[in-house]
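idk why but the lab printer keeps eating my pages so im just putting this in chat instead. protein + L-rhamnitol:
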Amino acid sequence: MTRFESAKEIYASVGVDVEAAIAKCMEVPVALHCWQGDDVTGFDHDGPLTGGIQTTGNYPGKAKTPEQLMADMDKAMSLMPGKKKLNLHACYAIFEDGEYVDRDKIAPKHFAKWVEFAKERGMGIDFNPTFFSHDKVKDGLTLTSPDEETRKFWIDHGKACIRISQYFAEETGVPCVMNIWIGDGFKDVPADRMGPRMRYKDSIEQILAEPHDNNLVKPCVESKVFGIGVESYTAGSGEFALSFAATHEGCLPLMDNGHYHPTEVVSDKIPALLCFFDEIALHVTRPIRWDSDHVVLFDDETKEIAKEIVRCNALDRVYIALDYFDASINRVSAFAMGFRSFQKALLAALLTPNEALKKLQDANRLTELMVQQEAVKTLPLGDVWNEYCARQGVVSDWEFFAEIEKYEEEVLSLR
Ligand code: RNT
Ligand code: ZN
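predcted complex ->
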């Protein structure tokens, strides 16, 4: 008997159907964020990363052109099991033949190459307006700016992104999640906390008024607790984003698990929000002490997030995207490791006897629940994971690094 066959029997003995879990895991789309490949730089500007986020490290081989970024994503995707969706930021517009337009004027044609890339690989596309790293960010503000010309520029950017999102959905046949996140805030104690939020509310309302099909474009608002240089106040706080989504038809809340106080957990917020929203969106990341955006690993909170989505029976109600950017290690490895880690968490969640455990809770058999939840942790997940990777035609964890080394030697080191 192979290790996989033996694992299957062990899981069956606790009521888990391994084949069903593997089949399900292959179907769940997870969005891969292009910005891990070039430290959130993009192709439409020179100048630093702003908005209160930061990449640290200077590992060689960073992608500098659309072709390099696509090649790196291709390599990474060849190492990742599971269903992928492409996640783009507006600053990854591709201008050709010397053309350039500012962010308020970007159009579907500037993303035609990405559409081609996605279609050839059978992927849908998610999208993000880029409200940072740009000279029209005035005094650190965009959609909350008291300067009407500035605010209008960014509203027009948002509207352009709605049109591009609709184009992505129409082209790929897959709904496009369009995430609004701004870094607007203040380093020190503001004198007016409500004014910027009222302007933000009005700005998003204007953006969402841009005609679009709600079945094709899924706008969301991502909250945040603080950013670098905006430690005292963030306009798009948790309460703001959640209340906005709750009161605006067709708008989803997006939770990034790096955007909360350190003892708050998104895994617990998922079932809370699912009581009220048909659909929600996630950015899965790994915050170390702050919103540091480390590569996602197979750690406790990642496992718990996946477990909640699965046991709430909400795989088709939660839009899952990854969001991290580590410039201190091989970026192709970072891409693939984060994706593989989330896949592993999903598979583990699908291999958990959730119904049996729920029954113990409802019968108040809490001693037994603790004992069994601990026993689940050492079920032979690794054997099923290896089989899952093999069936998806990707290398095992132990073969993975050799692929990274080879690509670094043959491609990245020549840049
Ligand atoms: C920033 C947010 C946001 C960004 C990306 C690049 O804290 O998490 O989602 O990481 O839009
Ligand atoms: Zn995020």
